Amino acid sequence: MTVRNGSASLSRRLAFGSESYYFFDKMFCQQPLARISRIGDMATARIPDHMARVAYDLVESIRTRRWTPDPGNAELAMLEATDLLPQNRRYLSYWHDPAINTTAGTIVGVDLIRHNGKYHVIEINRGPSIYPRRREMYAEPFDPMFWRIFETAPAEGYRRIVPIAFRWHAVYIEEFERASRALGIPIIPYNCPLQFPECPRRMFALPDPVEPETLYVIHSGLMSPTVRYLDDKWYVWQWLERAIREEMPGTLVALPTTHDDLVFPMDDHGPRWPNLVVKLASSARSCHVIAARFADIDEAREALGVSGIGQIPAKLRPAFLKGLLFRGSERVLYQSFVPPELDEREHARMLRLHIWVSPQRTTYLSAHARISHKPIPKVAPRGIIRQDDAYVFNNADYALLSPEIEEEIRSVAADLGGAMQRALVRKFETGPPQANSSAGSTTAIR
After folding, report:
1. How would DSSP label each residue in 276-297?
2. Which of 65, 165, 283, 299 could link 294 by a cystine bridge, Cβ 3.0 to 4.6 Å?
3. How far is CA 65 from CA 11, 74, 311, 329, in A?
4. 98-153 pLDDT, tens per residue?
5. How many other CB atoms sit within 10 Å of the CB of residue 395?
6. Are the beta carbons of 130 and 219 closer than 8 angstroms?
7. pLDDT digits (tens, 9 = 90+) for 11-35
8. How many angstroms separate the CA atoms of 109 and 125, rounded?
9. Helix 317-326 vs helix 46-64: angle between axes, to the nearest 10 degrees?
């Protein structure tokens, strides 16, 4: 394969970034630095890691005699690639090696709003929440989020399953032990990269080489460029918009109207609803999201503190600067607000879908409703909505779906899973060279 300069440079940057990530994780997650391994919700290791990446990218600029895009954050420059990008063997999250029958796949969470018969993708999350209160909704002996991955493993020739998460709750440690006995193969969970008492096993990254006849089930903890490609809202806008337009006729999947600069007016659904959403593209769990209702572009610019192209809205600047320290530059997205369905109390109802995505198959795992704690007011506040628990929420009540909605969600999962597979095989090597030539084929299981 002939590699053009742009892809060769980006491949080097990504390779260095993965090695740097591993080096600093291993350093900061062991004594004596383990006690300062976190600053709030951020890993301390990301600060020297980011500085090392910036330095490398400056050297890369000199080497290639051109400015490297997104210095210190090569993961945001992956659209620049003109050829398939390699994956670091310690950070494989979408991979299949048929010679040793080893697969790595990722569990993704998708936040959806059902509106006018379509399911609008609000965001895709790595490490979707697995709180015990969600587990309590299911009467089955095993959580479908994991059992639907595990149950076919013996027939597919896997001799061990390795679930990986930043932190496994004790409920799941016990459940994995029971599932292991039921299936007759070892299920060995790991925390990554920190160590917690519920699960004494931890890893900083995958072993190199990966183990044969092993199914790596990545929930969280193990960050990789492929995960970033599925998770970052700016990337999702790129590959999913194309998939809906070109590859998914008749799909129930939709995207909110999206721009990377302030465009106003957006879709307006009446005085009860916001008419603009602004967010940082790498945010998760409804953090760093602004919902607002404006009368015109001048009011929007004044309230957001945006007077020119490329400016960061004032309310998002602290989060942007924090991210700049830990990982580098960030994208801002401007979207239309999609009104959610309301329950009988007029509380907003969003949907959370979980999908297993691997080169071998995509699988619908589970879905449930998330219901706001506050009712939707009759008239939306003017300007930036400060108390937005009714419109933009993370903490919520949970509920199972009706059979009719769940059947539609299965169709959505099949379409989204296929779109994710196609997006990844267009951008990354997803197996050894002898296997990667056939990686363009995908299998979706509903």
Report:
1. EEEEETT--TTTTEEEEE-SSH
2. 299
3. 16, 17, 28, 21
4. 999 999 999 999 999 999 999 999 999 988 988 888 999 999 999 999 999 999 99
5. 10
6. yes
7. 999 999 999 999 999 999 998 998 8
8. 5
9. 70
